[in-house]
Amino acid sequence: MDKFRIISESEKLSSVNRTIRFKADIYEKFLYLSESHHITFNKVINQALEYALDNLEEESSDFKEDCQ
User: Fold this and answer.
1) How confident is the model at residue 12 (pLDDT cuts 50, 70, 90)?
2) How many CB atoms lie within 10 A of CB 25?
């Protein structure tokens, strides 16, 4: 599996507003990543979520196809 890499490119995405809660230590790690790579916290979270979904091992092989 490829390692997670943060992309600092600027791109405008359509989005959906949603409130989520983070464990304090996870929040601090993502905040550090966003500040150290000079990108928004939101972009780091979106990149991490995309990476997680792309690399998800699901019992149903149709999962990725169903979610597209």
Assistant:
1) confident
2) 7
